[in-house]
Design brief:
Length: 219
């Protein structure tokens, strides 16, 4: 068992029954010209998440924690993209439109791929997801159940959208959930701070939060 300092209380887990769920560290969210930028966001705000996520992934690999990468993307024919999602708002390019990194958020296009620092390795699990939550329309639940996973560690982008949605879905499914502060990020720093505060409030109503330093101090 590993116990690390966390809020609101220490978080204990057996690495053999724990998975890291790294959410949507894709070029379309982190680099200029992708989905995040088409929505008018300053994608440079997410740059510091990349080295922190890499450090967390390395720590998990060294401690025998399964690494799962999720990827928000859609089929080339958009059959898994509801019009409500595609037509929402006034982005400069919509999902499926051609951009500087290929078609926006389409599976197999360069933009939908992971940033080069965080490419999946042999033994990792990759989950392509059509929604914000990683359980909707994916085999994630079966992947976790078949491996006897009980605890989940979270990182990725964006904190208050896909990360928080997935953490809440996991919490409702009975998983003990921890999010690592530096390894997650938002285009809106105040939303990140609020999401983390909501997660650990009321005795950890959604789960625990900890810093990368807390993780490293655990061994
Ligand atoms: C968004 C995500 N923000 N991965 N996706 O649309 O958070």
């Amino acid at each position: 068992m590993i116990t690390l300092q966390a809020q609101p209380t220490p978080f204990s887990f057996d690495p053999a029954h724990t998975a890291l769920v790294m959410i949507d560290m894709q070029r379309d969210f982190i680099e200029p010209g992708g989905f995040g930028a088409t929505l008018g966001n300053d994608v440079s705000l997410l740059a510091p998440v990349v080295p922190a996520a890499a450090a967390l992934i390395a720590w998990c690999r060294a401690h025998g924690v399964l690494v799962i990468h999720t990827q928000e993307c859609h089929a080339p024919d958009l059959s898994d993209c509801p019009p409500a999602k595609r037509l929402r708002g006034k982005p400069s390019l919509r999902i499926g439109d051609p951009g500087s990194m290929g078609r926006i958020l389409i599976k197999g296009e360069p933009g939908a791929g992971f940033v080069p620092e965080l490419l999946p390795q042999t033994g990792d699990v990759v989950i392509a997801k059509p929604g914000k939550g990683a359980f909707y329309g994916t085999p994630l639940a079966q992947e976790l159940q078949s491996r006897g996973i009980t605890h989940l560690i979270f990182g990725g982008v964006t904190t208050e959208v896909c990360v928080q949605t997935t953490m809440r879905e996991a919490n409702d499914r009975g998983y003990e959930c921890l999010i690592i502060e530096e390894a997650t990020g938002s285009y809106f720093p105040e939303f990140k701070a609020s999401a983390l505060a909501m997660i650990r409030a009321q005795g950890g109503i959604v789960g625990w939060t900890a810093s990368l330093g807390d993780v490293r101090s655990a061994g």
